[in-house]
Amino acid sequence: MNTALPIFLFAAIATGMSLAILITAQLVGPKKRTAVKLMPYESGMDPIHSARHRFNISFYLIAIEFLVFDVELLVLYPWAVAAHDAQGAGGFGEGHAVFWAVMGFIAVLTVGFAYTWRKGLFKWA
C-alpha cells in the first residue's frame, strides 16, 4: 500500500484542483449571453448553410491523403531506427529484406499519390 499511496494522493489532488478550477470559472466568469455568443461557431466565420449542406468529395479525399502520409511517417521512423541499428551491428541479411519491403510500401503510396494528383484532387479552382 505504501507504493500506491503517492499515486492515489497525486490523483486526488489533481482531481480536486481540476474541480475547484471548473467551479471557480463558473462562479466568477462572465455570464452575459448575447445572440452573437449563442450562434454556432464555424472557424471564425458566420455559418451560411445548414448542417445538412453537402461538401465536395475533395475535402474528404485530401483528409484521407493526409492520414495516409501521416501513417507513412509512423512506419518510416521506427524502420529507419531499426535499419540504422541493424546496419551498425553488421547485420545485412534481414536488413535488405526490410529495405525492399519499405521501398514497396513507399512505391504503393507513390502510385496512390500520382493517381490522386492525376484525378485533379489538388486543384482548388
Could you explain the architecture of this structure?
This protein has helices at residues 5-28, 35-38, 57-88, 93-118. The chain has 125 residues and is mainly α. The protein has a single domain, classed as Methane Monooxygenase Hydroxylase, Chain G, domain 1 (Up-down Bundle). Helix 3 (57-88) runs antiparallel to helix 4 (93-118).
What's the rounded overall pLDDT mean? Answer: 80
Shape: flat
Write down the domain tally: 1
Q: Assign the CATH topology.
A: Methane Monooxygenase Hydroxylase, Chain G, domain 1
Named at the architecture level, the CATH assignment is Up-down Bundle
Q: Low-confidence parts lasting 5 or more residues at pLDDT below 50?
A: none
- Quickly count the helices: 4
What is the topological layout?
Blueprint lengths: L4 H24 L6 H4 L18 H32 L4 H26 L7
Short structural summary:
This protein is mainly α. The chain is built from 4 helices and no strands. The longest helix is centred in the middle third of the chain and has 32 residues, at 57-88.
